[in-house]
Amino acid sequence: MRIGAHVDPTDPLADAADRQADAVQFFLSDPQGWQAPKPRPDATRLRAGDVEVYVHAPYVINVATRNNRIRIPSRKLLVSHLTAASEVGAKGLIVHGGHVNQGDDPALGVENWRKAFAFAEEQTGLPLPVFIENTAGGENACARRFDALARLWDVVGALDAGFCLDTCHAHAAGEDLLGIVDRVKAITGRIDLIHANGSKDAFGTGRDRHENLQNGLIDPELIVAAIRAADAPVIVETPGGVDGQRTDISYLRNRLG
Length: 257
Known about the structure:
single chain; alpha/beta; TIM Barrel; eight-stranded parallel β-barrel; two-stranded antiparallel sheet
């Protein structure tokens, strides 16, 4: 089982070595901006290395919304990241599930996801999987609560979308981690990646504030049990820099055997 960390994009392989990680996740452009990724001089090293690579798309992407000024740039940014992520040998591109505006029919968001996949396939041929990630807050989110996720997966499941389970997001959304893998797989049939994160906040608050695994308000044994049940690669997106993430990775390796 690969266990790694979300790291700074400057030198992901050095950061992996510092954390004793065998997987990394990073951004290819400003996570809060609309800039397309630039070519990376280390692309060949990233493709050829032993460290498994994942790319997280910018947070601003929301392909579900009816707002054309957000949805259309989101599709284009998704396409540019698919191309750039394939160039560094990424195993998957992680994208948040997005949301519709208040008062809009959730079915619009699902249909817009279908159109986004169609556009991405037309433009890129989908050179790597898109992993849709569950999110922490928002009453109109497409992948916060699992009833909404089921509506989304009725469409994107047929398009071979992948799924990334974030433990902090599930906790924040009010989804119990006990037995969570079985509940997710009953909807998606798959878990391709786990974001193993503790939480600074109480259950169901909708607040997305990550904490180190042994310090937060999620029982770390529930996180370990979810990882064991999912049997998927793991990325910690926890604070504390090298020391904090190396401690979390070591904890998971020791608990998972």
